[in-house]
Amino acid sequence: MITVTDLTKVYHQGRREVRALDGVSLTVPAGSIHGIIGHSGAGKSTLVRCLTLLDRPTAGRVEINGVDLTAAHDAALRTARRRIGLVFQQANLFDSRTIADNVGYPLELIGMKKAERDAKVAELLRVVGLPDSGPAYPAQLSGGMRQRVGIARALATEPDVLLFDEPTSALDPKTTDEILDLILSLKGREGLAVLVITHEMHVVKKICDSVSLLDDGRIVESGPLVEVVNSLDGRLAEALLGIPPHAPLDAGSGTLVDVLSSGPKASTPVVAHTSREVGAELNIIAGSVEHLAGTTFSHLRISVPPGTDPERVVESLRAQGADAKITDLTPNEELDA
Amino acid sequence: MILLEDTWFNNPALQKALLPAVYETLIMVGLSSLVTVIIGLPLGVVLYVTQKGGLGESRGVNFVLSSIVVNITRSIPYAILMVALIPFTRWLVGTSLGPLAASVSLAIAAIPFFARLVETALREVSPGKLDAAHAMGSTRMQSVAKVLIPEAMPGLIAGVTTTVVTIIGYSAMAGLVGGGGLGRLAYNYGYQRYQSDVMVITVIVIVIIVQAVQWSGDWFTRRVDHR
């Protein structure tokens, strides 16, 4: 379990102060995967560096199973760091070492005997699906395989927290899915909390139990995936279950209404039912349906023709257990996350 | 042909002095290269780690080593440096003559040159790898010895090769002021006595030595380069 309290990082650029992190707090319990999503410049990289103490935060605490990393120095800090396994976007393997020696590096640091290390490395390479790659060099492996090695290396010291920094951003879609499946398979490992920092919604949708939105150094929204998605106003909901950005924004002379339904209701014809009830032809002009964390969510945008009261449509939809609201399409409607 | 044979193959300067001269040159180059690597490698590492944002940032140390020691030594032309160092050489090895004495000024000229090449080679190592080493709990010494230097090895070996080739060139000059070797042979016989055959053969031998160094350097670089 990792607990971050009020983490703040202030950089000085000449005389200017840059608050890269501004009071970030979050908790990831063991056995769960938490996603932190944000666009470039939101403070993701700074967060990774502060969580691993590669940079010292200006204020705040990073605790792993109750041990405060920010209070540790030198040898104690080096020991504490081994409680966090860090996986980089570009794997950052050592080109001069074979795959086995890369995975064995953290074990070498703790002085593990060669025979014991070899056995452990072989087991880790099996876990990440590369049992035969031990004698190869990183340059001989594909990007996805290198990332697997990075994961094996991060797992070597049996950390309590696995921290992924944009783990799939350099990979193609197919390889991304394979790596995400691997991360999901690690979820069951004893006592392991997983934190994934990414800008890809796809990653959050596929593997995360809970998610936080990082914007301008602050966590502006946070919660279990099923909760944050189940809202017509949230920025995370918009990002995870948004109307496609190229959907027609012009409803003609009609009024736009957004409908959100989840669970079993997502597969019932709520719009058709409302259409009959108000006696008007409601036109679905855009929508997205997603299966997230075991639940189906449907977010539809419908056009209510002139002459029909949109408020009545909203009421009828809500009566069926869906969430609905009249959409005011002002600019900035789309989330940039 | 007879004329050629007479002058080119029966020249006592070549028959008697060439092999000892080659030997002296190899001693000079070998000894000074060894000392250069032994002192220049740590110096280059210190230059790298003390730089701004380095593993052990230290403005004072970096300023003294980089701007004063390395830059000033490198600014002095070798012809002047080797003469200026004669008293120091005499104090250090007891004489200013012979290959051993010449190695002193050769090493002192080559150390800062090599240290810069080391610094450049270390900079080629991606900072992400050092981050990784740190995040896994390496000490600074471990980061340098287990990650930084092995990762920079192809560049370091290429740097050694360049340095040795440069030392071979300088060793000819060192030969003139008492170092001996092929430089002195070429100067004494080839230049001062107009024996062109000595000059040509000496040059050919030096070219062969340089090629041999470059080829073996390239071979070693390829051997350690897994990128």
Description:
The complex is a heterodimer of chains A (337) and B (227). By secondary structure, chain A is of the alpha/beta class. Helices cover 31% and strands 29% of the residues of chain A. Chain A has eleven helices and 14 strands. In chain A, the strands form three sheets. Chain A has a six-stranded mixed β-sheet with strand order 6-7-8-3-9-10, with helices on both faces. A four-stranded antiparallel β-sheet of chain A has the order 2-1-4-5. In chain A, strand 7, helix 6 and strand 8 form a beta-alpha-beta unit. In chain A, helix 4 packs across helix 5. Chain A is elongated, with a radius of gyration of 24 Å. The two termini of chain A are 27 Å apart. In chain A, 43% of the residues are buried. Chain B has a single domain, classed as MetI-like (MetI-like fold, Orthogonal Bundle), CATH 1.10.3720. Chain B is built from ten helices and no strands. Chain B is elongated, with a radius of gyration of 21 Å. The mean pLDDT of chain B is 89. The chains are: A alpha/beta (337), B mainly alpha (227). At the A-B interface, helix 2 and helix 3 of A face helix 7 and helix 8 of B.
Topology:
The complex is a heterodimer of chains A (about 325) and B (about 230).
Chain A: E1 2-13, E2 16-28, E3 33-37, H1 44-51, E4 59-64, E5 67-68, H2 74-81, E6 84-87, H3 99-109, H4 114-127, H5 143-155, E7 161-165, H6 173-186, E8 193-198, H7 201-207, E9 210-215, E10 218-224, H8 225-229, H9 235-240, E11 255-262, H10 270-278, E12 283-292, E13 295-304, H11 310-319, E14 323-326
Parallel strand pairs in A: 3-8, 3-9, 6-7, 7-8
Antiparallel strand pairs in A: 1-2, 1-4, 4-5, 9-10, 11-13, 11-14, 12-13
Helix pairs in contact in A: 3-4, 3-5, 4-5, 5-6, 10-11
Chain B: H1 2-9, H2 12-50, H3 59-75, H4 78-84, H5 86-93, H6 98-123, H7 127-135, H8 140-179, H9 182-191, H10 196-224
Helix pairs in contact in B: 2-3, 2-6, 2-8, 2-9, 2-10, 3-6, 4-8, 5-6, 6-8, 7-8, 8-9, 8-10, 9-10
